[in-house]
Amino acid sequence: MTFTSHMPLALDEARAAAARGEVPVGAVVVAPDGRVLAHAGNETRGRNDPTAHAELLAIRAACAALGQERLTGCALYVTLEPCAMCAAAIAASRIARLYYGAADPKSGGVAHGARVFAHPQAHHAPEVYDGIAAEAAAALLTEFFAARR
Ligand SMILES: [Zn+2]
């Protein structure tokens, strides 16, 4: 099976989030057979829900699609380094591989801050691939915040 990056779809979700006035972050969950199970963008404002990060929405939708509480063997693509909350959800859902775009020194919880997967209390740590389409993901965020100032 050839490797297909689903980061372009995650970037589409990030752009759609920006168009809704949400912080532009997008996420995609892919099944072990390569099928896209769910994709989502940030919706914290639209849902009045501080936990409505793209990753959590995509994880919830993928679990619902499969009718199970875990995403064993699945991959998650997200345009920005997940925060600690989302990293904990990634561990709990047993996602096998995490591909993310831009680093997030301010709020990231994978390579920065809490470094959730580095702790023995993380019952599962995915393989992590960072820097995937990082420039495009970071540019969306920079443009979004520049426009709000
Ligand atoms: Zn998050």
Automatic annotation (TrEMBL):
<comment type="subunit">
    <text>Homodimer.</text>
</comment>
<feature type="active site" description="Proton donor">
    <location>
        <position position="55"/>
    </location>
</feature>
<dbReference type="GO" id="GO:0052717">
    <property type="term" value="F:tRNA-specific adenosine-34 deaminase activity"/>
</dbReference>
<feature type="binding site">
    <location>
        <position position="53"/>
    </location>
    <ligand>
        <name>Zn(2+)</name>
    </ligand>
</feature>
<feature type="binding site">
    <location>
        <position position="86"/>
    </location>
    <ligand>
        <name>Zn(2+)</name>
    </ligand>
</feature>
<keyword id="KW-0862">Zinc</keyword>
<keyword id="KW-0479">Metal-binding</keyword>
<keyword id="KW-0378">Hydrolase</keyword>
<feature type="binding site">
    <location>
        <position position="83"/>
    </location>
    <ligand>
        <name>Zn(2+)</name>
    </ligand>
</feature>
<dbReference type="InterPro" id="IPR016193">
    <property type="entry name" value="Cytidine_deaminase-like"/>
</dbReference>
<comment type="function">
    <text>Catalyzes the deamination of adenosine to inosine at the wobble position 34 of tRNA(Arg2).</text>
</comment>
<feature type="domain" description="CMP/dCMP-type deaminase">
    <location>
        <begin position="1"/>
        <end position="111"/>
    </location>
</feature>
<dbReference type="InterPro" id="IPR016192">
    <property type="entry name" value="APOBEC/CMP_deaminase_Zn-bd"/>
</dbReference>
<dbReference type="GO" id="GO:0008270">
    <property type="term" value="F:zinc ion binding"/>
</dbReference>
<comment type="similarity">
    <text>Belongs to the cytidine and deoxycytidylate deaminase family. ADAT2 subfamily.</text>
</comment>
<dbReference type="InterPro" id="IPR002125">
    <property type="entry name" value="CMP_dCMP_dom"/>
</dbReference>
<protein>
    <recommendedName>
        <fullName>tRNA-specific adenosine deaminase</fullName>
        <ecNumber>3.5.4.33</ecNumber>
    </recommendedName>
</protein>
<dbReference type="Pfam" id="PF00383">
    <property type="entry name" value="dCMP_cyt_deam_1"/>
</dbReference>
<dbReference type="GO" id="GO:0002100">
    <property type="term" value="P:tRNA wobble adenosine to inosine editing"/>
</dbReference>
<dbReference type="InterPro" id="IPR028883">
    <property type="entry name" value="tRNA_aden_deaminase"/>
</dbReference>
<keyword id="KW-0819">tRNA processing</keyword>
